[in-house]
Amino acid sequence: MFVSFGVHTAHAQVLDNDIGSEPNMRVDTPLPAKPSNKTTVPPFARPEAVFSDPMGLTNWLRARGIALLIDNTNEFAGAVTKPTPGFVNYRQGASNAGQYAISLNVDWEKLAGIKGFATHMITVGRYGTTANRMFGDWLNHASEVYGGGGNVVVHLVMAYGEETLLGGRVALAAGRMSEMSDFVASPLYCNFQNGSMCGRPKNATDSAFTSGYPAAVWAARARGRPSRFTYLQMGVYLAENGIYQNFQHRTGFKFNGSNIVGTRIPLEFGWEPLLNGNLPGHYKVGGVLMTAPTADMYEDIDGLPYALTHRAQRMHKASYGAWTLMDQRIVNYNGGKDDSGITALWGFLYNDKHTSLREWEAYGAVIDRGFWKARPLDTIGLAFTYTKISPGVQMSEELLRAQNRSMPNHATGIQRHTSVFEANYAIHVMRGVIFQPLFEYFIRPNGQGNLRNAELLGFKSHIEFL
């Protein structure tokens, strides 16, 4: 990934550079070639926008340490195939979902002389729905920018302060933060629309206590860079019950913490090399320990199958997850001077099989930007994800089905594994505007073999207004 942090010069608008990618862009940016020990705030990203500097306002604000971004993301998907017959609630149809977002970054070193200190705040409003439920899939959204926004005009995503020390070698942050914006994160994921890939690989948010955009919790995070191309970061994120539900976080402004039930403690090591001096890559290994109480997928309080005994499920006091994520530019079209070239992504995520719906997920993707010299900012993307359902879920559903009882997770058949494929072509229409036609293919929707595979056509658009 190529990121320019020029304060007065906008870098080209591509889908990597939306507002939701701001926090993980800070994670994924190595130190400069000649880093200093000066305590200062790193310059804020400035994506290309439709109104780049209206009446000189943007430059005036940024000169005083205030960076304001406003954008809209819209995602449409419609089923080409008919749904599986025999289910009265399934139908062939289309849906549209979208989000408008506002980001406010303040450099308090420029504004008030507080060296190295900045604050970051993002709010969103979301609308619409997603098409995957029309054909029975509840595991992966066909439109990622859906849900969690509370159906309100303004929903607070995050608001936190960050102190950057020693020329970027140390960064300390605290406030209302989203775990998945710092850990298991990459700006490259949302070059795609489907929810198994965009935002973050879906396995990472299998727990309802995992805070992923647009949800946040009280948290603190420390990141250190022992060398130019490496980092080590650790965080403590308070696990809050109902962070994606309206009764707790409809607006995102509920701060009293009465629903805190435990903690999530992620740890991640990253290596961000420039191979051959101009091929950027990001290699990450990490894990998380969670202390929030979580139900066993198979056993009851006595260690017997809850589906047979009808007793309460066993509660685990702790659970865990782990991941290995990689992306690497393998071809440059312009000597590494811009964001053009071919980038490969691949990764593997594993969850505690006793407490998770998704035991593991593997993914692979290719992003080709600038392949057509006449359209240097256009991008072709191909992505494939495979998700394995935990064995306890499968065994419980087999027992429940044998008793003609309803199954969890909206299942109408045994959930075993599922895959999603996406192909897209992002067109840089004009300054600040991206339009991306796409094709999605759901294999074994909802992880079930009794549902037809589903083909969808759609588009994603992104407009950076300011």
Topology overview:
Elements: H1 22-27, H2 57-63, E1 66-79, E2 94-107, H3 108-112, E3 117-128, E4 155-165, E5 170-177, H4 179-182, E6 217-227, E7 230-240, H5 246-249, E8 260-271, E9 274-275, E10 279-290, E11 294-300, H6 306-309, E12 313-316, E13 319-332, E14 341-351, E15 358-369, E16 379-389, H7 391-402, E17 417-430, E18 433-443, E19 454-464
Antiparallel strand pairs: 1-2, 1-19, 2-3, 3-4, 4-5, 5-6, 6-7, 7-8, 8-10, 9-10, 10-13, 11-12, 13-14, 14-15, 15-16, 16-17, 17-18, 18-19
As a percent range, the share of helical residues equals: under 10%
Order of strands across the widest beta sheet?
1-2-3-4-5-6-7-8-10-13-14-15-16-17-18-19
- Count of strand segments: 19
SSE string, helices as H and strands as E: HHEEHEEEHEEHEEEEHEEEEEHEEE
Description:
This protein is mainly β. It has helices spanning 22-27, 57-63, 108-112, 179-182, 246-249, 306-309, 391-402; strands at residues 66-79, 94-107, 117-128, 155-165, 170-177, 217-227, 230-240, 260-271, 274-275, 279-290, 294-300, 313-316, 319-332, 341-351, 358-369, 379-389, 417-430, 433-443, 454-464. The chain has a 16-stranded antiparallel beta barrel. It has a two-stranded antiparallel ribbon with strand order 11-12. A hairpin with a 2-residue loop joins strand 6 and strand 7. Mean pLDDT is 92; it is low at 1-10.
